């Protein structure tokens, strides 16, 4: 899906912790039902700020791709994320959208 390799490892680590906590069946159901919602683990601004600092170039590129794909500005796509700073909103947008894309892709290949 074009994820930055290092960021992918960070996200997988977070998802593996959730899977260990919840068990594989609950995790699989949760993941397939993401529907463009943000996993709780990425709601913390300190987490998203760190991601933005480490991967800002990639995040900005993905934001531009999402704007093209959806025909909507990132601000419109993140209206439900008001109350957090711009960088956090961008990271959260990219993570929720790309994880949902992966879940949908997996469902299509069943």
UniProtKB/TrEMBL annotation:
UniProt key word Hydrolase: yes
One example GO MF annotation: hydrolase activity
Keywords: Hydrolase
Protein name: Metal-dependent hydrolase
